[in-house]
Automatic annotation (TrEMBL):
Keywords: ATP-binding, Endoplasmic reticulum, Glycoprotein, Nucleotide-binding, Signal. The lineage of its organism: Eukaryota, Metazoa, Chordata, Craniata, Vertebrata. InterPro entries: ClpA/B, P-loop_NTPase, TOR1A_C, Torsin, Torsin_1/2. Transmembrane segments: none annotated. It comes from Seriola lalandi dorsalis. GO terms for cellular component: endoplasmic reticulum lumen; nuclear envelope. This is Torsin. GO terms for biological process: nuclear membrane organization; protein localization to nucleus. It is found in: Endoplasmic reticulum lumen. Residues 1-22 form the signal peptide. Residues 273-330 form the Torsin-1A C-terminal domain.
Length: 331
């Protein structure tokens, strides 16, 4: 793909050069002018830029992806679709969109972030306007948080100045220094502009395992009462989630006033995945690899995972996380 584009570019440029040689000065100027604007168009075609050619929200794509590719997350699906849709359709939002995703490991927090990015940016997660910060990777040493702080603020400011439709994903938010979280607070708030930069079209996603246990407990209670998983509603989790989020002394998230100040627009709970969802994940992974989905193998792999509680084996402890590598082993 890239090679063809490059060939096209070279071809256009060499044609322009030949033309320039054969015409008088006036024509040459015109030809060079056309060549330059053509060059710019081609550059824009090849190189991602902050415009509607590269950034165009497709609501249908998000809806289809959430319903077909994301398994067992009816609450998260619904909130995300509504929130992103509403925000992207609003030409003049009052503040950036801030979503906080919570759940056990392997339930789809990064996966759903990827789906959101793909519905907005042509280049998806590879876009120059999508930025992922992982606490343990980018900000590993608590003692250095002051350095990280000014660095992070500069990055956010620089990137939003470049493109107001920027997306920032903070992974492992629960392992982030409270002071560092504090430092991004101004960007999440209802300011018209900060130092001449408007952050109101940006999107912030916070991913964490915080509250995962209480979400799982609620899901388990429903299961024990013989109730359908799909009956779980946001209101069944909201209270618990904010309680466990506030009271958890481990993570910095909670001691900051992100929550008091209502800077987070939506708390999005991801439910622990059941056996049947794991099977769906394996089948999807096989399809992705271009091999014929094999129900027998999917069952075999799913059965080998660890489930909680031990006796009833209801929820996959690692969700769909280790499936990729397991599949290599089984095939
Ligand atoms: N609900 C889901 N539906 C479909 N696939 C899923 C789901 N959850 C996880 N997966 C698959 O498992 C992989 C790992 O999930 P992901 O990285 O999103 O987990 P996570 O919630 O971010 O976990 P962690 O808390 O450990 O970071 C994904 O790439 C995806 O292929
Ligand atoms: C939006 O996504 C849908 C579903 O993936 C696709 O059929 C459609 O062509 C897309 N629209 C645009 C404008 O890209
Ligand atoms: C944008 O963020 C990235 C980190 O994702 C950083 O490396 C880069 O320097 C930032 N750009 C600007 C202009 O600040
Ligand atoms: Mg993750």
């Amino acid at each position: 793909m890239k090679a063809t584009r490059l060939y096209l570019l070279l071809h256009v440029l060499s044609t322009t050069a030949v033309l320039v040689n054969t015409f008088d000065p006036v024509t040459t100027t015109v030809v060079i002018g056309i060549g330059a604007s053509l060059g710019r168009t081609i550059y824009n075609y090849l190189h991602e830029s902050c415009d509607s050619k590269w950034i165009a929200f497709n609501a249908t794509a998000l809806e289809v992806d959430l319903s077909r590719k994301l398994f067992g997350q009816h609450i998260a699906s619904r909130i995300i679709l509504k929130a992103v849709n509403g925000f992207m359709k609003n030409a003049n939002p009052k503040k950036p969109l801030v979503l906080s995703l919570h759940g056990w490991t392997g339930t789809g927090k990064n996966f759903v972030s990827k789906l959101i990015a793909e519905s907005i940016y042509k280049e998806g997660m590879d876009s120059n306007f999508v930025h992922v910060f992982t606490s343990t990777l980018h900000f590993p040493h608590p003692s250095q948080y002051l350095t990280y702080k000014s660095q992070l603020q500069q990055w956010i400011k620089g990137n939003v100045t470049n493109c107001e439709r920027s997306m920032f994903i903070f992974d492992e938010m629960d392992k982030m220094h409270p002071g560092l979280i504090d430092s991004i607070k101004p960007y999440l708030d209802y300011y018209d502009k900060l130092d001449g930069v408007s952050y109101r079209k940006a999107i912030f996603l916070f991913l964490s395992n915080a509250g995962g246990d209480s979400i799982a407990q609620t899901a388990l209670d429903f299961w024990k009462e013989g109730r359908n998983r799909e009956e779980i509603e946001l209101k069944d989790l909201e209270m618990l989630l904010s309680l466990s989020v506030f009271n958890n002394k481990e993570s910095g998230f909670f001691r900051t006033s992100l929550i008091d100040k209502n800077l987070v627009d939506f708390f999005v709970p991801l439910l622990p995945l059941e056996y049947r969802h794991v099977v769906q994940c394996v089948m999807a992974e096989m399809k992705d690899r271009g091999v014929e989905p094999d129900q027998y193998l999917a069952d075999k792999l799913a059965k080998d995972l660890v489930y909680f509680p031990k006796s009833e084996r209801v929820f996959s402890v690692k969700g769909c996380k280790t499936i990729e590598s397991k599949l290599d082993y089984y095939t």
